[in-house]
Amino acid sequence: MHLDAIVIGAGFAGLYQLHALRDRLGLRVCVLEAGGDLGGTWYWNRYPGARCDSESHAYRYFFSKELYEEWQSSERYPGPAEIRAYLDHVARKLDLRRDIRFSTRVTAARYDEGTNQWRVETEAGERLSATWLVTAVGCLSSTNVPDIPGLADFKGRWFHTGRWPHEGVDFRGQRVGQIGTGSTGIQAAPVVAETAAHLTVFQRTANYSVPAGNHPLTAEFRQWVKSNFEEIRAVTRSTVNGHAFRISERKALEASPEERRAVYEKAWETGGLQFRGTFYDLLTSRAANDTAAEFIKARIRAIVKDPATAQDLADIDHPYAAKRPPIDSYYFETFNRPNVSLVNLRKDPIERITPNGIKTRTREHPLDIIVFATGFDALTGPLLAMDIRGRGGCSLREDWKAGPHTYLGVQIAGYPNLFTITGPGSPSVLTNMPAAIEQHVEWITDCIAHLRKNHIRTIEPAEPAVQAWGEHVQECARATLLFDAKHSWYFGANVAGKPQVFMPYAGGLARYARHCAEVAARGYEGFVLDRGRAAEAVAPTAQAGV
Ligand SMILES: Cc1cc2nc3c(=O)[nH]c(=O)nc-3n(C[C@H](O)[C@H](O)[C@H](O)COP(=O)(O)OP(=O)(O)OC[C@H]3O[C@@H](n4cnc5c(N)ncnc54)[C@H](O)[C@@H]3O)c2cc1C
To answer: Per-residue DSSP letters for 454-490?
Structure first.
C-alpha cells in the first residue's frame, strides 16, 4: 500500500498530524498505532492516581476555536479517562478513526533512495510505503523496568505504571512495594495506600512536590475558559513552557524574606506547577532556587510526623524543578498512615528481588505486588525501538550511539523526509506538551506543503546545522539548573547504558517557535532541499541568532 504520508502513533501528536496532512493538504495518510485505541500516554497510563499535571484548560488543542470552546472539562487536572474522552471527541468530530490502524506496531522503517520512499514494516509483517514519514511516537512511551536481579523468580504480580492493566489492580489485603518516587510514584502512592494492606515505597532519589490542588471546576470557571480562548492561547504560546499561566518577572532575591515567604505560601495554597512561576530566576540562579527548595523541604518536615521518615523525604540532592517537578494529592501525608513505610535506597539499597519480595541490604520486605513507577526510556527510546534506516542503509541506532543529533528536534541528517514530532533537541517534555506538539505539527505541515508546491523531492538537515543546533541545545541547558541534576531522565540517567546527554531544548517554547518560523521564512535555512537534479543546501547564516 503506498501513501503520501505515514504517521506513527495516535496520541495528541498523531491525531493532529493526521488531520493537518489529510484535511489541510489533501494527502493520503495512514496512522499506525501500537495500542488498541487512541490516547497515547493516556491509553497506557491508567495506574491509580494517574492524572495530568497540566491544567485542563491548557492541556488541549488550540488549533480550532470551535473544538476548544465546545469541550467542557470537569476538574482542574484531567484524568486519563477524561483525556481519552476528549481525544475521542476530537477524532469523531474530525472523522479521524477511518485512517488509523490500531494494534499495529511499527518495527522498522527504511528509506529507499531509488524510489524516494519510506518502507515501513509492522510487527505483523505488513509493509506500507510513503513519501513522508512522521513519528508521533511520544517522548514517554517506552517503559523502563530496571534490571534488578531476581524479578523472573518473583512469585507475586508486578506491573509497570505505563502499561497498567485496563481492568485495574485490586490492592485489598495486598502487601505492595512501589519502586520510584518521580511524578508517577508520587501520584500513585496515596491511592495505593488507601486499599493496600501495606505499602512500602522504595525511594532512591528524594523529590520535591507541591500540592496539586485538584478540584471540580465551577460553572463560572468553565464559562471563563470558554470566553477567553484567544487570551489563553496567547499565554500558552508566549511563555517558556507552554502553560496557561504567566511567570513572574521578579527575581527571588529582589523580594524580602517575608515577601518571598508570602509568595511561596500563596503558591502552595493555589497548588500546581504555577509554583515554578513564582520568580523568574528559579531555574537560572542557585541562590534563588535555594529559597524555593528550602520552603518545600520545611513543608515536608512539617507534614510528615515521623522525624526519620521526614528527614529521608526532605533529603533532596538537586535544585527544585531541575528534575521534572511533581505535584501531588497528599503524597507526604501518606507517610503518616500506619500502613505505609519508606525505604531510603541511598542508605539501604536493593540487592535483589526474591520469590517473596524485595531484599535490601538490611532485610527482606515481603510483598505480593511490585509496582514499577520507574518511568521511561525517554525521548530516544520510542524512536530507537524501531529499526530506522536512512540513506545508504545507515542505522539510527548506530548514528545515535553516543546520543541523539537532530536539527530543531524535527529532522535527522541522513534520513530524508522523516520528521520527528517533539524529537530530542526540541522543547518537548519541558513544556505543556500539546502546545509543543501543535507547533511541530504546524511547522511540519507547512514544510511539506512548501516541498510539494516547489516540487522538492527531499528535505534533510545539513550536518553543520545539526552540529550548531546540538551545541545550542547544550548551551541552553547549561544556562539553567537543569544541567545540575545529572541523574535526571532528561539526561537519560534512569536507563542503564544510555548515553548521558541532556536531550530536550531548554531555551523556551516561544523562543524555539520563533526560531523555527525564521528558519522556514529563510527558505528552510540549514536544510538540504533536493529538487531532483542538484541538491541545494540553504546555508545557515544566522545560527548565532537563535
Ligand atoms: C504519566 C504521565 C503524565 C504526564 N503528564 C503530563 C502533563 O501533565 N502535561 C504534559 O504536557 N505532558 C504530560 N505527559 C507527557 C505526555 O506524553 C504528553 O502530554 C502527550 O501525551 C504526548 O502526546 P504524543 O502524541 O506526542 O505521545 P504519546 O501520547 O506518548 O503517544 C504516542 C503513541 O505512539 C505509539 N507508538 C510508539 N511507538 C510506536 C510504534 N513503534 N508503532 C506504533 N505505535 C507506536 C504509542 O503506543 C503511543 O500511543 C505525561 C506523560 C506521562 C507518561
So the answer is: TT--EEEE-HHHHHHHHHHHHHHHHTSGGGG-TTSTT
Q: State the distance between the two ends of the chain, measured CA to CA, in whole angstroms.
A: 41
Amino acid letter, residue 202: F
CB 25 within 8 A of CB 449: yes
pLDDT, tens digit (0-9, with 9 covering 90-100), for 417-467:
999 999 999 999 999 999 999 999 999 999 999 999 999 999 999 999 999
Q: Nearest residue CA, atom 26 of ligand 1?
A: 138
Give the dihedral sign, CA 156/161/166/167.
positive
Whether 277 and 248 have beta carbons less than 8 Å apart is answered as yes
Separation of CA 233 and ligand 1 centre (Å):
22
Which pLDDT tens digit goes with each residue over 105-116?
Answer: 999 999 999 999
The rounded Å distance from CA 10 to ligand 1 centre is: 9
> For strand 106-112 and strand 117-122, is the pairing parallel, antiparallel, or unpaired?
antiparallel
How many whole angstroms from 324 Cα to the centroid of ligand 1?
16
Residues 6+ apart with CB under 8 A from 251: 279, 280, 281, 285, 288
Q: Which grid coordinates belong to 403?
A: 546520543
CA distances from 250 to 178, 239, 288, 482 (A): 39, 15, 11, 20
Residue 363, C-alpha cell as written in the block = 532485610
Extract the C-alpha cell encoding 357.
519480595
